[in-house]
Structures are given as structure tokens and as C-alpha cells.
Design a protein that fits this description.
CATH class of one domain: Alpha Beta
CATH architecture of one domain: 2-Layer Sandwich
Radius of gyration: 51 Å
Bound molecules: adenosine-5'-triphosphate, magnesium ion
Order of helices and strands: HHEEEEEHHHEHEEHEEHHHEE
Structural class: alpha+beta
Helix content: 40-55%
Strand content: 15-25%
CATH topology of one domain: Beta-Lactamase
Largest sheet: 5 strands, antiparallel
Length: 456
């Protein structure tokens, strides 16, 4: 069942239930109040008759007096203590079947009789007649409540008519309301179906004047689509950049391999050993590149890296020893305290250090200074080199994937331009920060900032 139909049916059913309840209360209250009023009127009449009769000497109960009080479709009887009728006037034969009944106290009864034209209510009221403090008889008045039946029928018709109209209006209103509510949802479903069919993310058209939950939902949906579009764009860009980067070493490898295939052809400009060496170095470059791709993909996806307290000083020391060994270069390490604990993934932090130190080593020739210090709630690591530096126009781009400041020289140094973007992602997952200050020709300083982990 459609959600609009469901909303419509449920609200109408609920309204109908409420209306029936209200109708019941109105109907029964009306009946009760009307009968009470009738009862009061008849009691009043009985008391008036008794008063008039009491004024007469010797309590003469004449028909004349009683008739003057007789209304349509009623009877008035005077009954003695043995339930015998002393006097009686009546103008409705339907009331004959009610037997006279002596009563010492005031009472009223409602009887229902069934006639051809339907049910009818008869009200019988008895009021005792007293003389010198003794109950000597009863005045009994019976009335057919014809007006009541008519009013009951009119009330029932009005209530039924109003209920039907209310149900119809509720059905129409509910339909309109559910359409209003469902409109943005329907358009969202349509957009989603389009996205599913075409595979192209699309945004919803939003009415900016409204500020309801559905509008919020549409805005969130659009934000999600924008993120999706951005990610798709990034993915596309990454694939095209990566294939472009891989194409260069592959072309070199292919041409050198081709040279080796035609080994009969004498080429004095190139030896077989040189060709093999070039193929080997290009293949190594490709291998490093694919490793960087993997590292980048991992650093972008792994938002929930397993963080635990690690000693940053010890991690720096281990990386430095390793780098000094490989590069045979001078790297100094200064720290104002031996240990500084941070919450981190040790392998990832070491990777950042390697990326930054590798750059410092690649783009400078002299010493490199590494400093570790505590500043407020942060552990700061600065890596200073005195090399080529980065032109200020390039500085804002160096964290972009595949970006290299000096393309020609970078090619010599064999980089892919991925190192810093990997480092930035890793720092982000550690709630840290990486920033670079550089002056062309003088050198570069990289600053790594990690929140300090304090033992509770
Ligand atoms: N210490 C530095 N001195 C001078 N230039 C630097 C330094 N660090 C980074 N750069 C510039 O920033 C660019 C981007 O650095 P990044 O580490 O991202 O890539 P890469 O070193 O070229 O390649 P790889 O992916 O192998 O690290 C480098 O190509 C270089 O031009
Ligand atoms: Mg690098």
C-alpha cells in the first residue's frame, strides 16, 4: 500500500473513531438532559395539582381541575392507598395499559413501548398526596414523550450527516496533505532512480524558503551527492594521474626491452648492460610508485587506524638510524625531553617521518636538523634542511597529489609527488597537522604537530 494511502486511511479511521465517541457523548447527554427536563416539568405539574386540590375544602378531586392540567398524549390519575383509581383523565388510549400504582414517595419511571412507527418513551411520575402528615394517596401522571423521539431522530440525522461530511473532508484533506508531504520524497526517489539508471550523481531541486525536516533531508541528500561527486572526481583524477605517471617508465622500459630484443642490431650508442640497468631502475621506480599508490589509498580510507600511546622520541630515533644508514648523511636530533607520548599508529607516524626526511635528503646536500619539543598540549617535530627550498608559488600546491615543484629536477630525484599528500592524510587521522615553511635557495622547514597523550 502506498504511504500516502496509508496516512490517509489511518488519519480518517482515527478521526472517525473520535467523531463516534463525541457523537455518543453528545447523544446520550442530550437524551439525559431532555428526559430530566421533562421529568422536572411533570413533577412541577403534579405538585401544582396537589397544591390546588389541597386548597379545596374536603379534597374534592374534580375531573375539571385535572383536565385543565392535561396535555396531549397523557393521563392524570389520583390513586388511593389500595392502588385504586379515584379520579382519572386521559386523552391517549396507548396509555391505558399502565396499571395504577400507589407510592409513598416521589418517583419517576421511563417505559419504552414499541409502536408501528418505532420505539416510544413513556414517562410515568408519581407524587404522594399527604394529609395531616399521612400519605393518603398518589397522583400519577403519564406522558408519551413524542417530542423527544422527534428530537432524537433529528439529532441522529444531524450527527450522521456531520460525521459523513467530516470523513469525506478528512479523506480529501488527508490526500492533499500526504501529497504535500510526499512531494519532496517522491522527487528524491525519482532522482535516486535516475542516479541508479544513469550512474551519474544528481542533486535535488530545493525550495530554500521552507525550513522543515524534509528540506533538511533534501539538503543532506544534496550534500551527500556533492561528496560523492567530489570523490568520483578525485577517483577519476587519481586514475588519470596514476596512469599518466606509469606510462613514462613503461615507455622507457618498452623501448629498452625492444633494443635488447634486436640484439643483432649493432648500436654503438648504447650497451646491453646500460639498457638492462635503465630497465631495472625504471622498474624500481614503478615499484615504488605502486607502493605509494597503495599507501595513499590506505591513508585516505583508513580513518579508524588503531591508535595507541607511543613514544615519539623513540620512533624518531629509530627512523633516523635507519635513514642515516641508507643515505650516509648527517642528521642531528635535538630534544628538550627524552620521551613525549602521543596517541598514534606507530607505523603510520614513522611513514610520515620517512616521507619528510626523504624529501629533506633528496632536495638538499648538507646537514639536516630534527628537533622535538613540547608546546602547550602538542608535541612538535621540526625537520630543517638547507637545500633548494620551494618557490612560494609552488608552496600552496605541494600537498596535492602528483604535484612536484621542479618537474625536471624531481624526475632526476625519482619522486612521484605523492609523499606529502600521504603524510597530510596520516596527520589528519591523528588529529595533528603538517605545515611547511620554505625559502627558495635557503632551505625548508617542515613542522609536524601531534596532540600529546597524557596518562590519566
Ligand atoms: N625539503 C624540500 N625541499 C625542497 N623541495 C621540496 C621539499 N619537500 C618537498 N619538496 C617539493 O614538493 C614536491 C612534493 O613532495 P612530495 O614528497 O609530495 O613528492 P616527491 O618527493 O616529488 O615524490 P615522492 O612521492 O617520492 O615523495 C616535491 O616534488 C618537491 O618539489
Ligand atoms: Mg617526497
Amino acid at each position: 500500500m502506498k504511504i500516502t494511502t496509508k496516512i490517509n486511511l489511518y488519519t480518517t479511521a482515527w478521526l472517525l473513531a473520535i467523531l463516534l465517541l463525541i457523537n455518543g457523548v453528545v447523544f446520550f447527554s442530550f437524551m439525559k438532559i431532555t428526559v430530566n427536563m421533562e421529568e422536572q416539568a411533570v413533577h412541577q405539574k403534579a405538585h401544582s395539582i396537589i397544591q390546588v386540590l389541597n386548597k379545596k375544602p374536603g379534597h374534592v378531586y374534580s375531573d375539571e381541575i385535572l383536565t385543565s392540567y392535561l396535555t396531549n398524549h397523557s393521563f392524570i390519575r389520583i390513586i388511593d392507598a389500595e392502588s385504586k383509581v379515584i379520579n382519572q383523565v386521559r386523552n391517549d388510549k396507548h396509555l391505558n395499559k399502565f396499571k395504577p400504582h400507589f407510592s409513598k414517595k416521589t418517583e419517576s419511571n421511563l417505559h419504552i413501548i414499541h409502536e408501528e412507527q418505532g420505539e416510544e418513551q413513556i414517562l410515568i411520575v408519581r407524587v404522594p398526596i399527604t394529609s395531616q402528615g399521612k400519605v393518603t394517596g398518589t397522583i400519577e401522571i403519564g406522558e408519551r414523550l413524542l417530542g423527544l423521539e422527534m428530537r432524537k431522530d433529528i439529532l441522529l440525522s444531524i450527527l450522521t450527516f456531520c460525521t459523513v461530511i467530516a470523513v469525506l473532508l478528512s479523506l480529501l484533506g488527508g490526500r492533499w496533505l500526504s501529497n504535500v508531504i510526499m512531494k519532496p520524497i517522491s522527487s528524491m526517489i525519482k532522482t535516486m532512480e535516475n542516479i541508479e539508471q544513469s550512474g551519474v550523481p544528481q542533486q535535488l531541486v530545493i525550495n530554500t524558503e521552507k525550513k522543515d525536516e524534509l528540506q533538511k533531508m533534501a539538503t543532506t541528500f544534496n550534500r551527500m551527492i556533492v561528496r560523492l561527486q567530489e570523490n568520483l572526481e578525485k577517483q577519476k583524477q587519481f586514475i588519470s594521474d596514476a596512469s599518466h605517471e606509469l606510462r613514462t617508465p613503461l615507455t622507457v622500459i618498452k623501448s629498452y626491452a625492444n633494443f635488447l630484443r634486436r640484439s643483432d642490431v649493432k648500436d654503438h650508442r648504447l650497451s646491453k648492460e646500460e639498457a638492462a640497468e635503465t630497465i631495472y631502475s625504471e622498474a624500481t621506480r614503478m615499484q615504488n610508485m605502486t607502493q605509494s599508490f597503495l599507501a595513499l589509498a590506505t591513508s585516505e580510507i583508513e580513518k579508524n587506524v588503531h591508535l595507541k600511546p607511543i613514544d615519539l622520541g623513540a620512533a624518531c630515533y629509530q627512523v633516523l638510524e635507519q635513514m642515516k644508514e641508507v643515505y650516509q648523511r648527517d642528521i642531528t636530533f635535538q630534544h628538550d625531553q627524552q620521551t613525549l607520548f602521543i596517541l598514534a599508529d606507530e607505523a603510520a607516524v614513522k611513514q610520515v617521518l620517512i616521507i619528510v626526511l626523504d624529501n629533506a635528503l633528496k632536495y638538499s646536500m648538507s646537514t639536516i636538523d630534527l628537533k622535538m619539543m613540547k608546546k602547550d598540549n602538542y608535541a612538535l617535530l621540526t625537520i630543517q634542511d638547507y637545500g633548494t627550498g620551494i618557490p612560494s608559488s609552488d608552496l600552496e600546491h605541494i600537498f596535492e597529489r602528483f604535484y612536484r615543484a621542479d618537474k625536471a629536477r624531481s624526475r632526476e630525484t625519482g619522486g612521484t609527488g605523492l609523499g606529502l599528500s600521504i603524510a597530510k592524510n596520516i596527520m589528519k587521522h591523528h588529529n595533528g597537522n603538517i605545515s611547511i615553511h620554505s625559502e627558495e635557495g635557503k632551505g625548508t622547514e617542515v613542522e609536524l604537530k601531534f596532540p600529546i597523550w597524557e596518562m590519566d
